[in-house]
Specification:
Layout lengths: L9 E8 L5 H10 L3 E6 L7 E12 L63 E7 L3 H19 L12 E8 L4 H4 L24 H9 L9 E5 L25 H39 L8 H17 L3 H23 L13 H19 L21 H6 L5 H20 L14 H10 L7 H32 L4 H4 L7 H26 L41 H27 L27 H5 L15 H7 L5 H20 L3 H17 L3 H18 L2 H18 L2 H27 L2 H6 L18 H9 L6 E4 L4 E6 L4 E2 L6 E9 L9 E8 L6 E6 L8 E9 L1 E2 L2 E12 L2 E6 L26 E4 L7 E5 L3 E3 L5 E7 L7 E8 L4 E3 L5 E2 L6 E3 L6 E4 L7 E10 L5 E12 L2 E12 L4 E9 L4 E9 L6 E9 L4 E5 L4 E6 L5 E9 L9 E9 H20 L5 H12 L4 H10 L1 E3 L8 H5 L8 H15 L2 E3 L3 H7 L1 E7 L6 E9 L19 E3 L4 E10 L11 E8 L5 E5 L2 E6 L4 E11 L3 E4 L2 E11 L10 E5 L5 E5 L6 E5 ...
Parallel strand pairs: 1-3, 1-4, 4-5, 5-6, 7-16, 14-28, 19-38, 39-48, 40-49
Antiparallel strand pairs: 2-3, 8-10, 9-10, 10-13, 11-12, 11-15, 12-13, 15-16, 15-17, 18-20, 20-26, 21-25, 21-27, 22-26, 23-26, 24-25, 27-28, 29-30, 30-34, 31-33, 31-35, 32-34, 35-38, 36-37, 39-41, 41-45, 42-44, 42-47, 43-45, 46-49, 50-51
Helix pairs in contact: 2-4, 5-6, 6-7, 7-10, 8-12, 8-14, 10-12, 12-14, 12-15, 14-15, 15-18, 18-19, 19-20, 20-21, 21-22, 22-24, 25-26
Length: about 1450
């Protein structure tokens, strides 16, 4: 079901016969239920159509009769009159006339028109019946009804062009016998539905009528009964009046309403049935005619009228969209017929060659022109007051039917019908005319949004505008052909027209142009009035005129727009309608502009070619393109005749152009507003450019500049170079007149950019590089790009004016230069520190430019980010062509950099070229589309590294590391080959969490040349420094965390005879200790044994330990064991152990710590220095020492990335495999060396030779070790010990124990049998020799023997208390040990603990520092089983389980 196509309100005719004048009784109730609503029509060939509202025109057939008793006999069928084309929308009035004489069944019918499409007949015929009782029905009324049906309600068979349905309305008056009957026999027994006296089975009057006229086979009920209430006032008007004698059968209001609903339902069904029959007949006829299209004699005009009848049928019931589709199909058919006839094929009949009105227009204008030229007065031709497009303007349908219509009239009529239907669809309230009163654009849209005014279907109205533009542009050519053919083909002296001495052919052609322009303007005006909506202002009236000037300020931001915006509440139909109306206004304005060109009020090329003969206008270069100059239009004298539009004629007949300018501004501003409302800002910008040119023409420079400021940017974005250049010239003139130097310079720079762009195009054309030309931006290769634009004097003028400005004007450098390249190989200065970078660029202007300075900024690629500015020492003169220059810097900041920005300073003009894209680039810099696409540009990379003669610095770990002191780092700074007269060194931290103790900075060498800055910590003043001087100073530091590597930023400002210089570098050095030391102490009564274990601490890097010495102190003497000297390699899984014997010196007090000094080297560092020494020597011998500071860091970076396996292998073999050339990725490193001098090739060949010669490098070289050896000093303190106990367990073995003697006595453990007791003596000695301040207070202890019962049984005092009194106090206890199992058993352990903290009778206030030496800790006893006796046990297998044990 297609319910989307809702219709507008339609109107159909319904004719009624009322011989008893009863229609006035039912008319009020019937009209109250009209129009018909919610009709649904379904055709077999179409989807379901819904008709919301359908008006019914009730037309009487005959006047009411005067005598109700003897009603007059109905006349014959009404006359079918021929109607005009305008009758389709009007009601039918008295289309059927009564006839005075007729015979039953042979009534005379008027002959209908041969073309069905020209008739308007009723869809439904109604007979209003008065029948008061059964007798009246039998005697008279049944006969009258049959005659009426046969005469008026019987259609001709096979012809449904005028199909209709009929209906009988039985009006029951109160007080009549019919009122006593129920509506049907089925309700006669119902007390409320009928009379009680009626017999069962009797037939009511309504049933009899239905039985007689509905027929047994008919499924359509054509009989309806309406009962009149006794209180009806119109009953008194009947003649004779009705006498109410009996009570009527009561009828409820519900039953009455049901009866009326049934009547309305029958109306709908009957009308739709008639309509369906008519549509089917018309469609069949149209198909038949269309199938005969190729047959001889087929006439399109007849086919058109026939198909239009179908369209009008749709229109009559409100299906306007279906009607519009049919008119569109007819329009396509007309275009096809016209095209075929233009080819010479005669198909569908011929049209007349011209329109008679057109010939009349020409002759009238010719007459007026002749009168004016003869000086006989002002011959004013007529003014058209009627609208040009109107379906009722002429009898178009009669002209079409008679084949006497021209193509122009045919198109006008067809378009008029289409616009009428579209407008009818667009007006929701059915009003085709626009609402009264105007609104501004914003007020109207807001009113629609708020629901204050009714909303039309703006899409339909927009469709009218869209079709209108197409119609005007197409039919205007048809009108031109029509007028030309009419003038040349008229029979009135055709031979004299070409030889008329007064009116020339050019003037006649001008008259024809004026007629066409007037018609175009009038159609635009009509369509604007016709599509005016409550949401929009009117057409071209002056109610929205804001005067000659737009109310805009010159400070309007470029990104804002002054055009109105569509309100969000209005759908896109508002925007579509606004755009369509804007197109119509622009079309009307084009007509007005053409008139202005003819009268020299506008230049031949538009507003941008106005020639006032003034000097100011000479600044606008209008002859930019040679092709445009050679195509000058022929001058035609102004002819006002032929302008038939009143307002246009009033504007153009005067000599002053003010009225013309005013109307042009009005149209332009309205078009701008409509375009803005439609969000078509580009179109609005184009209209505004014309306004800007007009203001410039009127010398209103302030308003012109306000427009031009926005227009230049708009046309630059669109790529229209010619228009942009013209606007820029005008804008520059405006700014110059307004004395705004800053904006004037900006505009001049844009003009210079245009000249530079033209130069690029010229160069590319000369070179013939089409590929490069295709890569240029759109405006650079545009065919209308100015090629001979003269900018002479602009450069000097802009430079002179810029000096008076307070701020610099920043402009992209690529606007005036091209081919900007930076040499990516910086060069070391020969006689000073620093770098030179060479630049090349192409200056594109013919006028030279005097510049002040050239500078380039480079930024580092790593972190932290650094930047260096290189500036030119000598200023080159910018002449047209390729320019070379050199920029230099006195800063030495090693690292990799990329070129970011190039700046040229000329007065207050600053030309900037960005090598890399920046986020948030200032809009002032982006003034051209020729800016490079930075995303695809390869970055210009530059590598800066010190030369052999320049200042350098390095960091190193100190040779001696004291763990008990603050950590320090050594800094070495070399002056190179510079004689420094003064300088300043600043030291900054470059590591997070690192704190440099700059107040403790200490200079270790050349103290007379350098001194600490007293006011600024971390700063040193260099007094004087000769060449090749190296200054060594040490700097303490602390850190919040354990550092692996330390980074320091060193900044040096120094002065030599060549100038001031700066050296900045971030230096790094590993500071993590490569070794770890653990100590284990064993106390004896007389001495202390300490074992020191040295292992690797960082990355499993092997160490080389040269010496490990424990130096004695004032209180302790040391004695080293074996292996503490010599070259010893320590691995991650193989640490080194050193044992020392420590004794307390006699007659000393206190506890002074000793010092463990370990001299070591790192294998990783040893590898780096061994390879670097060979590398440096080879570079110097090859004469490539200039690249030493660039190649060495890359070599060290690769050597540091050795795996632990490689390092351990090198430590074992004492040689390192450094790999081959390809493993070091030298190709990337060599990109920083310039290839032009051959150095890159030489370095590459030397590197390959070096790696081939030194594949393996020997280690453990004495000179290398001496340079990198370091010592770490670790303080070693003896733990505080108050008491030491010496425990001995002396065994007294029995006779089985034996000893073995020999040259050297061997220890053989005592041997006993299991269970054999072993007497022993426990001896405990108490000593306080390791206490630095021994006490004489007795100490309370107890011992405890810890034995396992499964191994030993102890007899004696297993636990006993004893008191330690003084030095040498010894106590003994006898014990007996009994072994309980065989084997080599270790004697039980003895443990000593304090009692109450060791103080006799005191409290436990702390632990006592105590050690125990158990001499029997490793003593064992060999326990054997006793084999001298045997025990045997026999278990009985019999009952009772008796055991027998025997022993021997």
């Amino acid at each position: 079901m297609d319910t989307s196509q809702t219709s507008s309100s339609g109107k159909v005719a319904v004719t009624y016969w009322d011989p008893a004048a009863l229609f006035q009784l039912i008319a009020p109730d019937l009209r109250a239920r009209l129009p018909l609503r919610n009709l649904h029509w379904k055709s077999p060939t179409r989807p379901l159509r819904s008709i919301n509202s359908l008006h019914v025109d009730l037309i009487p057939y005959s006047p009411p009769p005067t005598n109700l008793a003897t009603p007059s006999t109905p006349s014959s069928a009404g006359e079918l009159t021929r109607v005009r084309s305008s009758d389709s929308t009007r009601s039918i009035e008295s289309t059927i006339n009564r006839s005075n004489s007729r015979s039953r069944g042979h009534g005379r019918r008027e002959r209908r028109h041969q073309i069905p499409g020209l008739r308007n007949t009723p869809y439904l015929k109604i007979y209003v019946l008065r029948c008061d009782d059964n007798d009246s029905y039998k005697n008279t009324q049944r006969k009258l009804l049959r005659e009426w049906i046969s005469t008026h309600a019987t259609a001709a068979s096979g012809d449904n062009h005028d199909a209709f349905e009929w209906l009988i309305i039985h009006v029951v008056l109160p007080g009549t016998p019919a009122a006593q009957q129920p509506r049907s026999s089925s309700s006669s027994s119902n007390p409320s539905g009928g009379s009680r006296w009626m017999k069962s089975g009797s037939t009511t009057l309504l049933d009899k009528i239905r039985s007689d006229f509905n027929g047994s086979s008919s499924k359509v009920d054509r009989i309806i009964q309406v009962r009149i209430s006794p209180s009806e006032p119109a009953l008194a008007t009947l003649s004779p009046p009705v006498a109410i004698t009996a009570a009527a059968t009561p009828e409820s209001p519900t039953e009455t309403e049901i009866a009326w609903i049934d009547l309305i339902t029958k109306f709908k069904a009957q009308i739709l049935s008639s309509f369906d029959a008519r549509v089917g007949q018309y469609e069949e006829d149209v198909r038949e005619k269309d199938s005969q299209r190729r047959l001889p004699g087929w006439n399109f005009c007849t086919f058109f009228v026939l198909k239009e009848g179908l369209a009008r049928a749709f229109e009559s019931v409100g299906l306007v969209e279906d009607a519009l589709v049919l008119y569109d199909e007819l329009g396509f058919g007309l275009e096809g017929i016209v095209r075929e006839q233009e080819k010479g094929e005669v198909i569908g009949g011929r049209f007349i060659a011209w329109t008679k009105e057109g010939l009349y227009w020409i002759e009238e204008a010719r007459r007026c022109l002749t009168v004016r030229k003869k000086g006989e007065g002002e011959g004013m031709d007529e003014i058209d007051e009627v609208i040009p497009i109107d379906a009722e303007k002429k009898p178009y349908r009669e002209l079409i039917l008679s084949n006497e219509i021209s193509v122009f009239d045919f198109r006008c009529y067809l378009f008029a019908r289409q616009t009428t239907l579209l407008t009818r669809l667009g007006r929701r309230n059915g009003d085709i005319r626009p609402p009264s009163g105007g609104h501004s654009l914003q007020e109207a849209a807001a009113a629609v949004h708020n629901g204050e005014i009714s909303e039309d279907d703006l899409h339909r109205l927009a469709e009218v505008c869209k079709r209108g533009v197409e119609f005007i542009t197409t039919v205007s050519r048809v009108l031109r052909s029509d007028l030309t053919s009419g003038y040349q083909g008229s029979s009135e002296h055709p031979e004299d027209k070409d030889q008329d001495p007064i009116v020339s052919q050019g003037e006649i052609q001008a008259v024809i142009d004026n007629l066409i322009s007037s018609w175009t303007y009038a159609v635009c005006t009509q369509l604007l009035d016709q599509t005016a909506s409550s949401a929009l202002p009117g057409g071209l009236e002056e109610n929205s005129d804001r005067g000659l000037l737009p109310k805009r300020m010159s400070s309007l931001p470029a990104e804002t727009t002054s055009f109105p915006h569509a309100i969000n509440g209005a759908v896109s139909g508002l925007e579509e309608l606004a755009a369509g109306r804007a197109e119509l206004i622009i079309l009307a304005r084009t007509v007005l502009e053409a008139f202005g060109k003819k009268k020299r009020w506008i230049g031949s090329e538009g507003w941008f070619a106005v020639d006032l003969g003034e000097a100011e206008m000479e600044d606008v270069k209008l002859d930019i393109v040679d092709d445009v100059k050679n195509k000058q239009a022929k001058k035609v004298e102004w002819v006002p005749e032929g302008i038939r539009h009143k307002r246009v004629k009033n504007v153009m007949i005067g000599d002053e152009p003010q009225a013309f300018y005013k109307l042009f501004v009005q149209l332009s501003e309205k078009a701008m507003n409509y375009y803005g409302l439609a969000k078509r800002y580009k179109s609005a910008e184009r209209v505004e450019s014309d306004l800007a040119a007009l203001k410039f023409h009127l010398k209103d420079y302030e308003q012109a500049a306000a427009h031009l400021k926005r227009m230049t940017n708009f046309y630059a974005e669109q790529g229209w170079g010619l228009i942009e250049t013209t606007l820029l010239s005008m804008y520059a003139t405006c700014l110059k007149e307004m004395q705004q130097p800053e904006e004037y310079i900006n505009v001049v720079l844009k003009l210079l950019y245009k000249s530079a762009t033209s130069e690029i195009s010229r160069i590319q054309r000369i070179c013939g590089n089409d590929e490069v030309v295709s890569l240029l931006p759109l405006e650079s290769s545009h065919p209308f790009q100015p090629t001979n634009f003269n900018v002479k004097g602009y450069v000097a003028e802009a430079l002179a004016l810029s000096n008076s400005l307070s701020e610099e004007i920043v402009t992209p450098m690529q606007n005036l230069w091209s081919d900007i390249t930076v040499d990516q190989f910086p060069r070391h200065c020969q006689d000073r520190d620093g770098f030179d970078v060479h630049l090349k660029m192409r200056y594109l202007l013919a006028e030279p430019l005097a510049i002040d300075k050239i500078a380039i900024k480079v930024i580092s690629t790593g972190t932290p980010s650094r930047e260096i500015w290189l500036e030119s020492l000598s200023v080159p003169n910018m002449q047209k062509g390729l320019v070379k220059c050199v920029v230099t810097t006195n800063n030495t900041i090693p690292g990799s950099y990329v070129a970011e920005e190039l700046v040229i300073y000329a007065g207050k003009l600053k030309f900037v070229h960005e090598f890399m894209a920046k986020a948030g680039l200032s809009p002032s810099l982006v003034t051209s589309s020729r800016a490079p696409n930075n995303s695809g540009i390869k970055k210009t990379k530059l590598n800066f590294f010190p030369s052999p003669r320049s200042v350098t610095a390095r960091l190193a770990m100190p040779k001696m590391i004291h763990l008990e002191q603050t950590r320090t780092v050594d800094i070495f700074w070399s002056s190179g080959e510079n004689t420094i007269t003064k300088g300043e060194i600043r030291i900054r931290s470059a590591t997070a969490g690192l704190r440099l103790i700059t107040r403790s900075l200490e200079v270790l060498s050349e103290t007379d040349l350098i001194g600490l800055h007293k006011d600024t910590p971390g700063t040193l003043d260099v007094k004087y420094c000769p060449p090749h001087t190296e200054i060594h100073f040490t700097l303490p530091y602390t850190s919040e965390t354990d550092l692996i590597e330390l980074m320091i930023r060193l900044e040096v400002d120094y002065t030599t005879s060549a100038g001031d210089f700066t050296y900045i570098d971030t230096l790094g050095v590993p500071v993590a200790l490569p070794l770890a030391v653990n100590v284990q102490d064993v106390f004896k009564a007389e001495c202390l044994y300490s074992k020191f274990q040295v292992c690797t601490a960082v990355g499993e890097v092997p160490l080389r330990i040269l010496t490990a010495n424990l130096h004695e102190s004032r209180t302790f003497s040391t004695e080293a064991g074996k292996g503490t000297t010599g070259n010893l390699t320590v691995y991650a899984k193989q640490p080194a152990n050193f044992i020392y014997k420590i004794r307390r010196k006699t007659a000393t007090e206190g506890h002074e710590a000793m010092s463990l000094v370990i001299e070591y080297t790192n294998i990783d560092e040893e590898i780096g220095h061994s390879v670097a020494s060979l590398f440096k020597t080879g570079l110097k011998q090859a004469g490539l020492e200039n690249y030493m500071h660039w190649l060495l860091p890359s070599l060290f970076a690769r050597l540091r990335n050795r795996s632990p396996v490689e390092l351990e292998t090198a430590a074992l073999l004492e040689e390192i495999d450094i790999g081959n050339y390809s493993e070091y990725n030298w190709e990337e490193v060599l990109e920083a060396i310039p290839p032009r001098s051959g150095d890159r090739k030489r370095v590459s060949e030397w590197l390959k030779s070096f790696f081939a010669t030194h594949r393996t490098v020997p280690l453990n070289d004495a000179s290398v070790l001496a340079a990198i050896v370091r010592a770490i000093l670790i303080p070693v303190s003896v733990p505080h010990l108050q008491v030491i106990h010496t425990i001995s367990l002396k065994l007294n073995p029995p006779s089985l124990t034996r000893s073995v003697s020999g040259p050297e006595p061997l220890y053989i453990p005592p041997m006993v049998t299991i269970g054999q007791p072993i007497p022993c003596t426990l001896t405990i000695s108490h000593s306080r020799s390791w206490d630095p301040s021994p006490s004489t207070v007795p100490l309370e202890f107890y011992y405890e023997i810890q034995n396992n019962p499964e191994s030993w049984l102890v007899s004696g005092r297993k636990r006993a208390h004893f008191t330690g009194l003084a030095e040498g106090n010894t106590q003994t206890w006898p014990l007996v040990l009994v072994p309980t199992k065989s084997g080599n058993l270790v004697v039980p352990n003895v443990e000593i603990r304090t009692v109450n903290g060791g103080v006799n009778g005191g409290d436990d206030d702390g632990e006592l520092a105590m050690e125990t030496e158990y001499k029997a800790n490793a003593q064992s006893v060999l326990v054997l089983p006793d084999v001298r006796s045997t025990t045997v046990r026999i278990d009985s297998v019999y009952a009772g389980g008796e055991q027998i044990t025997g022993r021997s």
